[in-house]
Sequence to fold (231 residues):
Amino acid sequence: EMELLESGGGLVPAGGSLRLSCTASTSAFTIYAMSWVRRAPGKGLEWLSLVSVSGGRTYYTDSVRDRFTISRDNSKNTLYLQIDSLRAEDTAVYYCSNRGSPNGLYGDASHIWGQGTSVIVSS
Amino acid sequence: SYELTQPPSVSVSPGQTARVTCSGDALPNQYVYWYQHKPGQAPQLIIHEDTRRPSGIPERFSGSSSGTTATLTISGVQADDEADYYCQSADSSATYVVFGGGTKLTVL
Fold:
């Protein structure tokens, strides 16, 4: 089974930018649509963004649409999340996950998750 | 924006049955997925497509859905089941994903 490893988190000043990466262990990455999800301290899981298998279609939750950019490089088995104009409320653990699978085994579920990377925004 | 509503907390004693509900207007037309999330770990899929259980998930976890409400049932709750549980679905376009607010299960 494919494994995912997020990186790129850290302590960042408010107003700064950050690029998170999610590297897959196998080229199976290229057959999955991929999502970013975060969990802020004391809050629940929040879906942020989705990118299609090819990278040609992207979707965002309304609250991050203007500042977050999702992308992927299938030649590197890597998913990215560019975060600009960081705010204190962006402090969270960021997870990457698949959405669905070509064989539909789990429907549209995210059954593969990384361990997360922590982003702390200092004000 | 579309929302899914869960109770913030549920408490049960070991061996009892816990039920976590998830309400949303689009649920009659969209599948519900359930995840278990423990501190310091990645979320884990425990129910997909309303009622189906992935391999490796204990039979005490089950899901159901009727109308605008889906329910996660945990039978014979164990101490290790203490975690946050999230429902997930999509809006009516089936494109935008949404999570419920999460339910903290406390095993007394």
Summary: The mean pLDDT of chain A is 96. Chain A touches chain B at residues 35, 37, 39, 44-47, 50, 59, 61-62, 95, 97, 99, 106-111, 113-116 (CB under 8 Å). The two ends of chain A are 40 Å apart (CA to CA). The CA atoms of residues 37 and 105 of chain A lie 21 Å apart.
